[in-house]
Amino acid sequence: SDTAPDPQAAMEAANDAAPAAAPAPSPFPALVVQAQEVGCDHLAPFSFVFSTPSREGVHCFVQFTTHCFSDKYDPARHPENIVVVDERGQLRCFDQDRYDLSKGLEALIRNLPGSRVYQTPESNFAIIAMQDGREYRVFFNVRRLGKKKVRLYVESAYPPDAERFQVVPATTYQKVRFGLLVVRLLSNDALEFRG
């Protein structure tokens, strides 16, 4: 007897068969900061291919949000209130510090295979690295697109500031190998979050 086609399997097969997309332009318009145009080309979506011990040729598609270069407006920290509208339509302010640190994001993400990341109580993941001599936290989620394709979405990235907000110690997060995380995701295995 004929069996009904599985829509999820059909979608994943189409995604796996699709060629890698050409480099995309930055989705963020240039801003004028202190009379100078500041672009965000370094935050354009990109993709890379890596392998794990049990999966070869995994395609990872990476996207960023405005939170990588914007923050809540603070007149003590922002000489100009340069408005940035985030993905939810909320008004934020261009943050020079976050912007400068964001220039190292692509390298951090390309180095994820073979590295460990942190599970957070918010059911996402974090890279905790040193950037320009200080701690830099990059928060992201990962979604399965196909049998060998994932999307990594960088939700926010900033240096923790204990004077402005409570900083959760890295020791409270659970470490997990990025490769294992991806393999479990591609295998449809449940990911356990422990806060």
Task: Give your account of this protein's structure.
- By secondary structure, the protein is of the alpha+beta class.
- Helices cover 17% and strands 33% of the residues.
- The chain has helices spanning 7-17, 96-102, 105-110, 178-186, and strands at 31-33, 36-38, 46-50, 58-64, 70-71, 83-85, 91-94, 116-119, 125-131, 134-146, 149-158, 174-177.
- The strands form 3 sheets. A 7-stranded mixed β-sheet has the order 3-4-11-10-9-8-12. It has a 3-stranded antiparallel β-sheet with strand order 5-7-6. A two-stranded antiparallel sheet has the order 1-2.
- The longest helix has 11 residues, at 7-17.
- It starts with 6 loop residues before the first helix and ends in a 9-residue tail after the last helix.
- Mean pLDDT is 86; it is low at 1-5.
Brief rundown of the structure:
This protein is an alpha+beta fold and 195 residues long. Helix content is 17%, strand content 33%.
Helix-strand blueprint:
Elements: H1 7-17, E1 31-33, E2 36-38, E3 46-50, E4 58-64, E5 70-71, E6 83-85, E7 91-94, H2 96-102, H3 105-110, E8 116-119, E9 125-131, E10 134-146, E11 149-158, E12 174-177, H4 178-186
Parallel strand pairs: 4-11
Antiparallel strand pairs: 1-2, 3-4, 5-7, 6-7, 8-9, 8-12, 9-10, 10-11
